[in-house]
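By convention, each integer encodes one residue's backbone shape. The lines below illustrate.
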Amino acid sequence: MEVKSHFVNLKGYLQGKGELDSFQVDRTDTEMCEIFGVPVEQSEEENSEKQSSKHTIYSLFAKAAAILILPLLVYSLYLTSKISRITRSTGDQIVWQTVRTPAGMQTDFFLPDSSHVWLNSGSEFKYPVCFTQEKRQVELSGEAFFDVVKDSSRPFLVHAGKLNIEVKGTQFNVINYPDEIFTELILKSGNVRLFSGKYEDNNTITTIKPGERAFLDTGNNKLIVEKADIDKYLAWKEGMLIFRDDRMDEVVRKLNRWFNVEIILKSPELKEYVYTATYRDETLPQILELLKISAPVAYHITDRERLSDNSYTKRKIVLTKRKKNCL
């Protein structure tokens, strides 16, 4: 409305019908341009003032951002330090993982350092979820084959009953079943050190070379190191059973673990009988029949008994010495 009235007044003045009002006379060019909506060219001084104002605003924002970011940065450093302390604390208390294989089953897996482990029937294996920087330590009850990744700065330690083993990059087999009085180590490649007590005490018993077998009788703590038929001891990993001049009580021991049965030698003289055979994928009835043909053995399978908890006993097989047929 103000702009319209000024137009009317200006028109009358130009037609000689009046005078300009005080508004138009007193107002500056800038003010008039603002009234009529005409863009106004600003002087350098005015531009400088506006730029200075913008710079001041940006400066205020920067200061405000710094004020806000600084506490966040300090808090972030605090959290990082706290997490680091927690990591070191849990490192002092090693978390162990346990792998078990049921009787008659086998499995294989990799350790945190990428070492490969094969676990035989009825075995239990314990290892840390994360190895320490000083050593790689595991525990075995049963039988396992190890393919250990070489790491000269961190020895690989296996605690197998009374047998303590140190390796660095090695392939070897360990047998340590709790219901047997023998603990064995068979070395395929690399070097092995057997020690007693704590690893830090450095009490070396002996060293083992490739192709050798260390045999510990835990009953009298007698250790024997001898040359061994490596293929025979490692065949289980490939799904094979190999017997080469093995006593019958050793054959029975392996068959019991392999098939989760209880084979009993009824005739004492059978224990000394030496047996040689190779089995791959044969079932237990097939092996018993082959054993009957190739050795002076007769067998009888008894029925499984039901227990009070509704489980069943192992299948029992009684081996007796077969009588010679009379002509």
The two ends are 143 Å apart (CA to CA). DSSP finds seven helices and 18 strands in the chain.
